Amino acid sequence: MRLSLGSTLLILTALLVQAVALPEASAADAYPNRIIRIIAPTAPGGGSTVSARLIAEEMAKRAGRQVAVVENRPGAGTRIGSEIVAKAPPDGYTLLMSPSTLATNPTGFRNMPYDALRDFAPITQTLVVPNLIVVHPSLPAKSLKEFIALAKARPGDVLYASAGYATNPHLTLELLMSMAQVRMIHVPYQGGAPSIIALLSGEVAITASSSMSLLIPHLRAGRLRALGVTSAARSPALPDVPTIAEAGLPGYESIQWAGLLAPAKTPREIIEKLHKEVVSIMQTPEARERLAKLGNDVVTSASPEEFFAFIKAETVKWANVAKAAGIKPE
């Protein structure tokens, strides 16, 4: 049977499409065929590092071989590690386990080396953790309402510590000031632990921190006093401590979170494969228990698009808080 020129061209075109599509499919099916690097842009010990290591360990158990390694690349408020991933090849072998600074850094830094909404392909959120707002016990305020009254009576006299400029704890207290209509003086430190040490020593009067494991022993010993947790619901780690909304600022909410991302333009098949695997790992009882010890709650995204929408909403929220507080990118 002789084929017309048109029929021949159609067949050749179909074969060409198949030839192009097959390598892509096989590449996605074979992923991963070498070690994945998960960059944690923070110092070891925090929730983002713990969840990254948990994922790497469980991937190895399921595969019967090492699949991923975790690299801590702290510095510059998480911008160093995040930039490494933003500029990595979009092949799924360099991932970012980012804390919530991904959404807050643009409020404080003018020359960002990446765009959080353009240069990453979100995979899934992994956890949330509230901040705990704590004061030095020498302060004559035993509740949030009493603290607000004190701060209003002494505008500009109260010093508050944060983990650094434009970090979530910084903006958490800026949001409190905005909603309570009080004015305090910001004292940034190089990380959460130094800000807690400054509060314990009495250098400052108040701070916000998500490091429940560090704060709880000091609360029990009477070296610090809790005013409230910043989530919408009480923390299982401190069920007797009210939320800030309950304690006097209805509608107040500020959480820290972590999530896994890849460089932008990573193939969709790889993003979907990672999403399915990581959500499955994070939802195990072992993962929940391990993170609960740090005061973290496992929260995963129904889809990569849902995680993108969450990051976008967080970015807009904190940009508005910074604008209202007069914070300008440096």
Q: In words, what does this structure look like?
A:
The chain is an alpha/beta fold. It folds into two domains: 31-128 and 257-325, Bordetella uptake gene, domain 1 (D-Maltodextrin-Binding Protein, domain 2, 3-Layer(aba) Sandwich); 132-247, D-Maltodextrin-Binding Protein, domain 2, CATH 3.40.190.10. The chain is built from twelve helices and eleven strands. The protein has helices at residues 5-30, 47-63, 79-86, 101-108, 144-153, 168-180, 192-201, 212-220, 244-247, 268-282, 285-292, 304-325, and strands spanning 36-40, 68-72, 94-99, 120-130, 132-135, 159-162, 185-188, 206-209, 225-229, 255-263, 297-298. The strands form two sheets. Strands 2-1-3-10-4-11 form a six-stranded mixed beta sheet, sandwiched between helices. A five-stranded mixed beta sheet has the order 7-6-8-5-9. Helix 2 (47-63) links the parallel strand 1 (36-40) and strand 2 (68-72). Helix 2 (47-63) crosses helix 10 and helix 6 crosses helix 12.
Relevant terms:
alpha/beta; five-stranded mixed sheet; D-Maltodextrin-Binding Protein, domain 2; 330 residues; six-stranded mixed sheet
**Mean pLDDT across every amino acid position:** 91
Q: Domains counted in the coordinates: how many? A: 2
Helical fraction equals 40-55%
- Report the uncertain regions: none
Biggest sheet: strands side by side, in what order?
2-1-3-10-4-11
- Global outline: globular
Number of helices: 12
Number of strands: 11
Sheet with the most strands, sense and barrel status:
6 strands, mixed
Strand content: 15-25%
Structural class, from helix and strand content?
alpha/beta
Q: SSE order in H/E notation?
A: HEHEHEHEEHEHEHEHEHEHHEH
